[in-house]
Amino acid sequence: MASNAASTVIPANQAPKLNYLNNGHTLRSWLLTTDHKRIALLYLISVSIFFFLGGFFAMLIRLELLTPEGDLLQADTYNKVFTMHGMIMVFFFLIPVVPAVLGNFLVPLMVGAKDLAFPRINLLSWYLYVIAGVLFLHCMLNGGVDTGWTFYTPYSTVGSNTNVIEAGLAVFIAGFSSIFTGLNFIVTVHRMRAPGLTWDRLPLFIWANYATALIMILGTPVVAITIVLVAVERLFHLGIFDPRLGGDPILFQHLFWFYSHPAVYIMILPSMGVISELITCFSRKRVFGYKFVALSSIAIAVIGFLVWAHHMFVAGISLYAAMIFSFLTFFVGVPSAVKVFNWTATLYRGSITYATPMLYAFGFMGLFTIGGLTGLFLATLGIDVHVTDTYFVVAHFHYVMVGGVLMGFLGGMHFWWPKISGRMYPEGWAKLSALLVFVGFNLTFFPQFILGYVGMPRRYWQYPPEFQVLNVLSTAGSSVLAVGYLLPMIYLLWSLKYGPIATDNPWNAAGLEWKTSSPPPTFNFDETPVVTWEAYNYDEIPDVPLEAPVAR
Amino acid sequence: MAGQVDALYIYLLLVSGAMTAIIFLAVTVLAIKYRRVPGREAHQIEGSTILELSWSIIPFFVMLTFFIWGAVIYFQERTPPADATEVYVVAKQWMWKIEHMEGQREINELHVPTGQNVKLIMTSQDVIHSFFVPAFRIKQDVLPGRYTTLWFKATVPGRYHLFCAEYCGTNHSGMGGDIVVMEPQDYAQWMAGGATAPLQDTGKQLFAALGCATCHRSDVQGRGPSLAGLYNTDVLLEDGRTVKADENYVRESILNPTAKIVKGFKPVMPTFQGIVSDEQLNALVAYVKSLAQPPPGTAGLQNQPATSPGQPQNTQVQ
């Protein structure tokens, strides 16, 4: 029926089916929408703006570090640039990118619901994000902030004379946007699943976003309170963190990392969910060990709350506290490893094709494996003392937070682009971009592991000349990476007008989102679907032809 | 220490390198071997609890070896040997100020002899800094308002980078210097040139000048507890707790005397916050540490509970 009809090119004179994109064209119809799919696109536009802004600052950092002397920027400017880069990328890109864009778009579709549980709160969450973003831009144009994204005290409360409070307020507001998204996901998954869609039939992307939502709700308030305390000490000189006023600077680090370590899992878990969808679809297989993959997301979310002080092994915490936190940190390695092993096992005896989303999934596994294993180095006390606060840490968290998250995001964007836009992307360009991202990423960040072990501290504006070769390599890699990230933006925009029209299910994928039209109607399904099958029932879905599955 | 850290690092590199190779190889081989071929269908597999358990438990035990080895090194790094020479370090934006016990002072340079254990007692005048010597594989944050310590033993003469590793503002990347490791005889020569009064002598003068000695008397029991032999002993407090009299305890008792009241004494000591600089504090701490245990019988018994709390003269707390 509808799905077959859409697979042929629609004549120009025939009106296309009413869908969420053409259901209202006014600006008002977008800015006051409560449709989760439109809100996802609003988020996509806004996080992309911040991604390219953060990327611009990243390029400034790499250019400055091309030479040992501080010659491109002033020291103060450099400090502001890396702070802006960190704050924008963490709070305005990595945390919202997958949940607020792909999660927003897909959670209701995947559970067979008309929308999220609280559509207006969903819109409010986007407005809070925009308010926070505008405030942050205002702070930036007014001279910026130079505390590093970590706001460490007492530098942020008494040392810095930049706009700490405004930046903190922006992060505070962005935090509420994140809490609202998490709240919506939890209620939706509990209350709005289609008939027959039991917990053990849920797609793993839903499990991952559910676990993420738990962290958003439980962790974000802590960082919000912490930022308020920083503002209170800065404004009213109440002694909370500054020892001269009777405070304790390490208290700040405990509070900050209690959120900011789990925040790493807010970033990576949804991407892991994407990877589970991609690997099953392009292997035509059920996921190996569904229960273990699903529960590993919850395990990561729970254990992730118990490891924060591994950021503080040299901060001045007690010997025994350090040992306990080191020990607990290794526990979080287990569920992460379980995921990688299960994805690998899913490939076994599959029927594998190498469309762009699958290339991104392979890339994710590569970068996440390196990022995860180097995390074990940092969890090991004797090694951490040497490499913490060096480029080793910078490389490690970029592998996980940037390599992992962006591979998942871009893989997901390509996979669901036909559903989102109703158009196919150009496969050749897309494969090239996946390759450029993978090569560029490794070239940029792998040298930084070595740089860290030989002793280059992070957040350095100038450095001894013996570190130059590795820095030049890293800067060269970052230019490749930049092209790799720019390309998808260009050809995805191009495909909106010129891409081949997509069928309802171009990948012959399982999952409810593929059982409605592309793009979906405003309320997602013409009739509420009834689920009678397990997740990833690829044995019941006919295979697709050998060639890349584009609509002809 | 550097050798041990490197050995552990190589062990981790080997294990994680092998792990990466296995996963990369497995993904590559599987992806090629099971690529789509017309007429061949995917073979559905539910999973395997035995496999799941084994790839959860085996890696965990491998990781336990990382933990244990790493913790052993960390324990050594955090436990300065008793015979270590002490050096006081005061960090400020953006320099390292070094004070040797002999009274030698330097800025952004630390001279040490080979073969000698050196313990650094560090504090900051403003924000958090971090004392990082990559060649020795050691690092410790330096905090305002308290002491943190770090120790090392240099073996090969030469100049080694000293970096600040905790972001501290504008000139963070310029807040570096050198650890100058010298042969013992060269070091002795260097130390002989320009030496002033030993640190504890400076402290002794301050102790007298600030009037500390009027209450903390060495001959008879004054209004404050005697400080002779205090360092590194356990002190019984008014609230029943027992604390170790380390450098941080002495420092806190000068700056915030009411935080920990020794059992049997009244909270009568004024604060010296803002009156003594960090360097003067170091000298005072060095002086208090240098005070030897009094000869037995001179000033009562150690840690004996107060017989009459209203009369501190009758109590003795070390």
List the helices and strands and how they pair.
The complex is a heterodimer of chains A (552) and B (318).
Chain A: H1 2-7, H2 27-31, H3 36-64, H4 75-111, H5 119-141, H6 155-159, H7 164-191, H8 204-236, H9 249-283, H10 290-303, H11 319-347, H12 356-379, H13 381-387, H14 391-421, H15 427-453, H16 468-498
Helix pairs in contact in A: 3-4, 3-5, 3-16, 4-7, 4-8, 4-9, 4-14, 5-7, 7-8, 8-9, 8-10, 9-11, 9-12, 9-14, 10-11, 11-12, 12-14, 12-15, 14-15, 15-16
Chain B: H1 2-33, H2 49-77, E1 85-92, E2 95-100, E3 105-107, E4 109-113, E5 117-124, E6 129-133, E7 138-142, E8 148-153, E9 158-164, E10 177-182, H3 184-192, H4 199-209, E11 234-236, E12 242-244, H5 247-255, H6 278-290
Parallel strand pairs in B: 1-5, 4-10
Antiparallel strand pairs in B: 1-2, 2-3, 5-8, 6-7, 6-9, 9-10, 11-12
Helix pairs in contact in B: 1-2, 4-6, 5-6
Molecular structure report:
The complex is a heterodimer of chains A (552) and B (318). Chain A is mainly alpha-helical and 552 residues long. Chain A has a single domain (37-540), classed as Up-down Bundle (Cytochrome C Oxidase, Chain A). Chain A has 16 helices and no strands. In chain A, helix 4 runs parallel beside helix 7 and helix 8 (204-236) packs antiparallel against helix 9. Chain A is globular. The two termini of chain A are 17 Å apart. By secondary structure, chain B is an alpha+beta fold. Chain B folds into 2 domains: 85-192, Sandwich (Immunoglobulin-like); 199-314, Cytochrome c-like domain (Cytochrome Bc1 Complex, Chain D, domain 2), CATH 1.10.760.10. In chain B, the strands form 3 sheets. Chain B has a 5-stranded mixed β-sheet with strand order 3-2-1-5-8, with helices on one face. Chain B has a 5-stranded mixed β-sheet with strand order 4-10-9-6-7. In chain B, strands 11-12 form a two-stranded antiparallel ribbon. In chain B, a hairpin with a 5-residue loop joins strand 11 (234-236) and strand 12 (242-244). Chain B is elongated and about 100 Å long. The two termini of chain B are 36 Å apart. Mean pLDDT of chain B is 87; it is low at 297-318. The chains are: A mainly alpha (552), B alpha+beta (318). Chains A and B meet through helix 4, helix 6, helix 9, helix 10 and helix 11 of A and helix 1, helix 2, strand 7 and strand 9 of B.
